């Protein structure tokens, strides 16, 4: 079992909502961090993107952080093959 993914995003962001829907549709337990509500999360986003604010970002275990991953990329990262 892959480690629990962490989603960095914002409630108003359509791409963030799409990733939340992906996780829900596959019953994947995940942590959601709203970058609008956390300076630390905003800094983490910048650290992942060479100082730029880019999201949604998904982090799965020790894998490389993914910027706005596709469902296929998420499937691969989570080891879910349909």
From TrEMBL:
Family matches, as SUPFAM superfamilies: Thioredoxin-like (SSF52833)
Glutaredoxin domain mapped to chain residues: 7-63
Annotated CDD domains: NrdH
Database matches in PROSITE patterns: GLUTAREDOXIN_2
Region of interest called Disordered, as start-end residue ranges on this chain: 61-82
Any Pfam family: Glutaredoxin
Name this polypeptide is given: Glutaredoxin family protein
